[in-house]
Amino acid sequence: MVAADDLVRARKQLLDGGSRSRRLDTVALRQALVDLHEFWLTTKGAELGIKPDSGFAIVAVGGLGRRELLPYSDLDLVLLHDDLDPAVVSEVADRLWYPLWDAHIKLDHSVRTVPQALQVASSDLTAALGLLEARHIAGDVELSNLLIGGVRRQWRTGIRSRFDELVEQSRARWARSGEIAHRAEPDIKNGRGGLRDIQLLSALAIAQLTDAVPGLGPQTPGGGLAFAHERLLDVRTELHRVAGRGRDQLRAQDADEIGAALRIGDRFDLARMLSDSARTISYSVDVGLRTAGNALPRRGLSRLRRVPVRRPLDEGVVEHAGEVVLARDAKPNKDPGLIMRVAAAAAQTGMPISASTLNRLSDSAPELREPWPKEALDDLLVLLGSGRNTIAVIEALDRTGLWGRLLPEWGAIRDLPPRDAVHTWTVDRHLVETAAYASGFTTRVSRPDLLVLGALLHDIGKGRGGDHSLVGAELANQIGNRLGLWPSDVAVLSAMVRYHLLLPETATRRDLDDPATVRMVAEALGGDTVLLELLYALAEADSLATGPGVWGDWKSSLIRELVRRCRMVMAGEHLPTPDPIDPEHAALAADGGVHVLLQPAEGAHTYTVTVVAPDTPGLLSDAAGVLALHSLRVLSASLGSHEGAAVNSFTVAPRFGAPPQAGLLRQELIRAISGELDLVAMLEAKENQALAEQALERGAEGVPVQYAQAPPRIIWFDTQVDGQVILELRAEDRLGLLCRLASVLERHGADIRWARVSTLGSSVVDAFCLHLGDTDSRVTREEFEEAMLAVVPAPRPRTGEGAEDGVTEGGAG
């Protein structure tokens, strides 16, 4: 038998191609390799008698089967026969395989009948996935069709029992090979977001569980899934050509050459392109697996619900089959804030946004007006304050073009590779990681909203040239105005971005014992203690999001000491103070009786509810409880008194629909004051029912625990009035939290003189002025703290850097 030397020579000629200007590009090279091998196999097959009606067929799998043959790919072939004489089969197989072996061509081969091949596919998942790509090359086409059709029918009918194994095999592969988007030397074939994942999507499509190319919307960065697939193929093709052998892992020393050959640029440009493509594929796989899983019969408790329930989450947003989707009456083309409500609901519940919902929003949702409505900003803050859930939601928005529509400045940093090896993530992912870490520190600061916004934007100036802190400060100013922040808050946000490196660089490079060092920092920050505490929390979040070991005891102790000394120089904190009472409300208070006013507020979905009633114990908890039971979320509150009457004003937002009539709220409040309603118990039941429904819908085995991202924090301020203190609580929100807190304070004998309540995204900063009489002692304060911490969401158990328990502090007036 003559070796396949002619095939080897032809392959070499294709790969050499003469000068660089004359050699084939990657697409043409792959096609030429496919044509060459098909020609050789059909010619050799005809020579061996492998013809129509011969009972033999040559079937290609792998790269040749997919028509994606790379320069040094293995040749994966199956010799099919129609249960012929073993001696004849052996002779034909030897005459087909030996020339390839003798020519040192890598060959993965098998000889099977159709039933044998189907048996292998039924018992070996890897073999089944390979045979799903089978393609007839030469010989008896009917025999090949029997195999191809049989394998696909078998795959479709058996996918229910094999789906879990398929998912587990994919996850194990990702764990071994890592993410292409965030790896210095990625595995183009096996890494998450690689070519194996394209084959996974194809297998799910053949099983009729999902579309092989999930829609990503018209504004998808990078050109969508098909283009991402093509680009990865091009990189792997050029990798083979550069390495001179089969290779899947892109080495750093080859990146510049490959980038130049593909006319992409240098290794950083290549890394950016790979990140974009891999993240597009990863998102598509997430959608494909989720869609496929929902198409299969449910298991466990979720089987009890034959038809998934549509549970309202927000105005125009519902949960359906474990995904966040649009309500049937939602009008995305007339509701600019719907994108942010969907995102906030997904982040809060931890559920993914339906791909069809994202596509519909991408197709028809209008631009948010500038400045943003307050409701949209609040939803953005909820999204950013949701910890690790934030990452998947922003990734989904970004892959479908929606995030770039909300933040056009994001395009310059999308998939931008870090220039410093210490960074784990691309710049855009680093910002999202920083925001996720910062959400765990929101109770350390008085402005949690500015902390998460600053975390999201602190490196927004990268990728544009110049000092990224200076460039970013200008962009932060632009973005803050667009978001509708107050001018003073825009200035603080811009300063956070401008000085986000000031504390770590000063603490680790300057002499802290030198008074000039501390004075320099204090002057740079304008003596602003709020900005100082924001930068302190941001420095830790930024370090934790950079990579392992960047935030340690040495660095944290130096920054902590610098901040302590700066606070001493800046000196003093301002006490919370009550808001003035509206003269109209004062007149109602003088008239006596119970009054409830409901008026539209500045936002399209916000209202002001004013309660004027005799100032009796329990009134605040009753009023807040009635609002919570009617699904009115308290965004802010100002609580005071006038001539023996309480004057409490609440800014509220209905979770969905329109608010109830003021008359109904008044009737319910009167019932609560008279003791007919146990509001705390009713709130507890409503919250547990919602959690139980969510757990059952998602297949959980019980009611989940409601955790917070950040540990709650209580700060005490002494005042100059005997027996009077100010208590400030920083925590995460929950259903009826103000009602629960007021009930605790009233139950423990505190007289609430006034209060200021602020809900910033998912965080609350509540200040209560309390008269404690003769009970003002450390023991009494500890009892208050214990009772209040029992009704706020507990911090999620965490280990490692950044973990922290609930905190209480004292302050001075």
UniProtKB/TrEMBL annotation:
Gene Ontology BP annotations: regulation of nitrogen utilization
Taxonomic superkingdom: Bacteria
Molecular functions (GO terms): [protein-PII] uridylyltransferase activity; phosphoric diester hydrolase activity
CDD domains: ACT_UUR-ACR-like (cd04873)
E.C. number: 2.7.7.59, 3.1.4.-
Every ACT domain range: 608-684, 726-800
Residues covered by region (Uridylyltransferase): 1-312
Pfam family, one: HD
PROSITE patterns given in the database record: ACT, HD
Key words of the record: Hydrolase, Magnesium, Multifunctional enzyme, Nucleotidyltransferase, Repeat, Transferase
Positions of the HD domain: 427-541
Reported cofactor(s): Mg(2+)
Record comment: activity regulation: Uridylyltransferase (UTase) activity is inhibited by glutamine, while glutamine activates uridylyl-removing (UR) activity.
Catalysed conversion reaction: [protein-PII]-L-tyrosine + UTP = [protein-PII]-uridylyl-L-tyrosine + diphosphate; [protein-PII]-uridylyl-L-tyrosine + H2O = [protein-PII]-L-tyrosine + UMP + H(+)
Biological role: Modifies, by uridylylation and deuridylylation, the PII regulatory proteins (GlnB and homologs), in response to the nitrogen status of the cell that GlnD senses through the glutamine level. Under low glutamine levels, catalyzes the conversion of the PII proteins and UTP to PII-UMP and PPi, while under higher glutamine levels, GlnD hydrolyzes PII-UMP to PII and UMP (deuridylylation). Thus, controls uridylylation state and activity of the PII proteins, and plays an important role in the regulation of nitrogen metabolism.
Free-text domain note: Has four distinct domains: an N-terminal nucleotidyltransferase (NT) domain responsible for UTase activity, a central HD domain that encodes UR activity, and two C-terminal ACT domains that seem to have a role in glutamine sensing.
Family affiliation: Belongs to the GlnD family.
The name this protein goes by in its record: Bifunctional uridylyltransferase/uridylyl-removing enzyme
Organism, as annotated: Rhodococcus maanshanensis
